[in-house]
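ok trying this again, last paste got cut off
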Amino acid sequence: MIVLIGSASNIGESLLEPLSKSSEIIAFYNSKKPSVKKMHNKIFFEKINLKKKHNYDSTFNKYKKKLSNSKITCINLAAVTLDRLLLNISYKNIVDVFNVNTFSNFLITKSLLPFMLKNNWGRLIHFTSTKAILGDIGISVYSASKSSLIGFSNSLSKEYGRFNITSNIISLGYFNSPMWNRLAVQKQKNLLNDVPSKRIGNPKNILNAIKFIIKSDYVNSSVIKLDGGI
């Protein structure tokens, strides 16, 4: 069983069918339901607004039987960005960004941990970005919300590693995503100057990293960079 959060993004959609070949999937989305080439009984869609306080326990209880008897991998791709100087950011902006980028990770993980503990197995895969860690002009709140996941993941790895539950971070560079596509063409060209290969990443690299983490029980408390060498 795989829980894929933020599955309506370009990256999330690209992962659904490859991952469903070997697992059942609960796919969370906000407004736009992810599209798959053919519908089948291995992908279950759940519409959730991650900006609002949500009782994830009740959502997962719908799948209690499946989750209680499955090896669970939680992949949280959900992200909102805010390209604005701190002086021009409202309190509501800050709360909205942290609700999706940070607090949803906390609460979803908390809801899934009892099932992972029962099964004595779990994979927690959180996503941040190289720019979030390095920082840049206009992304102070986004950077804070995403880079905080590193400390969160490191602590989880130490709390639950003895139960065969690992927690790792995948740090992304530039990929085909709504955030990337919103940028002006010149801005995209300027950013790609930081990448030795001068191109955005292929989602297949993300899929390979996810499979690596799932199979590797000794990979724990790691930050795996997928950024082309920024």
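PB: full thing came through this time. The chain is about 45% helix and 15% strand.
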